[in-house]
Amino acid sequence: MNCNKEAIALMHKYLDGNLYKEEERRLRDHLQECSSCQNHFHELKRTTTLIKNTTPVSAPPRFTANVMNSLPKQKKHKTYIRKFQQHPFLTAAAIFFILMFGGILTEWNQDQQVTVSKQENLEIRDHTVIVPEGVTVKGDLVVRNGDLKIEGSVDGDVTIINGDILENTSGEQSNDQLNRSDLRAYSGELTEVNQIYEWVWYHTKQTVMDIFSFDSE
Amino acid sequence: METMIKQKIKEVKKGNQSAFEDIVSFYQNKVYHICLRMVGNAYEAEDLAQEAFIRAYTNLHSFDERRKFSTWLYRIATNLSIDRIRKKKPDYHLDAEVRGTDGLNMYSQLAADQALPEEEVESLELQTHIHKEILALPPKYRSVIVLRYLDELALQEIAEVLDIPVGTVKTRVHRGREALRKRLRHM
Fold this sequence. Notes:
heterodimer; A: alpha/beta; four-stranded mixed β-sheet; 10 strands; 15% strand; B: mainly alpha; Rna Polymerase Sigma Factor, Chain: A; Arc Repressor Mutant, subunit A; 0% strand
C-alpha cells in the first residue's frame, strides 16, 4: 500500500465516518506493519479530538435583546401597504368604489334644482315638467328633482329622479306610432329614482351602460 | 425542534416580529460560535452574528420552508464572516501604526518565530492555542473545519451551507485536518 496517498486517503475517509468494511480491514493491516502511517494516524486522531473537545461558546449576554432592538421597526401603515400590494385587484376596486360613491353622493346632495335633459318644447312649472299636448319629444327624457306630466308624447326612455310621474288621464293616445308601447305616452322604459340607494344603483347602471355602449356609438 | 422553528418562521412571515426572538435565542450560540471561530475576535463576532440574524429576518421571505433553517442561517453567518475576513485583509499593513500605541507597528504584534518561553506555553490555555491554529488556516479550510468539528455538521450539510460540491468539502476537510495535524503535532 502506498503510504502517502492511499493510506492517508483511507485515514481521512475513516475520520469522515464513511469507510467500507473492506477498506477498514486494509487500513488496519497496513497500520500494523507501517509505523510512520501509524504515527500519522495517531496524530490525526489526536488533532480531531483536540478540535472537537473545545468548550462550547455562548453568545454574549443580552444578545437576543440586542438583535431584537436592531431589527427594522414594523410600522402599522407598512402592513397596510403590504396588504394592498398583495391584493392589487381589491385595492383598485376599493378606490373605484370610494371615488364613485363619493361623487354620486355629493351630486345627490347638491342638486336640488329642477333639471331636465336638453329637449326643447318642454314647459317647467312649479317643480313639474310638462310635455305639452301635441308635442313629441324625440330621444330619452331625464327629469331631476321634479315631477313629470306627459300630455304629449315621448319617443324614448323616461327617467325621473327624485320625483313622480303625474298620470295624465285625459290624454287618450291616438298616435299610432306610439302604439308600440301600448297605452303609454312614452315609447321606452320608465324609471323613477327616489331613494338614495336607487340613485346609486341607477348611477352604477348608467356608468356600466356608458362603458359598454361606447363602441356602438 | 425543527417543527417549532418552522412554526415560528411562519409567524414571523405573517408579521409577528416577536416570534423571531425565540429563533434568535435558539440559534444565538451556534451562530456566534461560527462567527467567533471564523474571525477570532469577540466584538467582531458579536457584530457579525447580530448582522446575520438581522439579514435572516429581512430576507426571511426568500427562505424556502422545505429546507433546513439552520443550514440557511449558517450560510448567512459564514458568508458574512468570509466577507469580513476578505475586507479586513488590506487593514493588515505591517507598517501601519497600531492604534492607541506610540510608534508601535504591526511587526511588533506578530508572534515570534522561535518557540515561546516555557512558562508562557504553560499559561497559554490549550483551547486558546487550538483556536489560534484554526484561525491560522486559510478561510476556505477554516470554514469547513469550524462547521465540521465545532458544529458537527455532516459533510452534505456543509456542502449546502457553503454552496460547494460535497467532493470539495471532503478535500477541504482533509487538507484542513492535515494542516492542523502539522500545527498541533507538538502538543
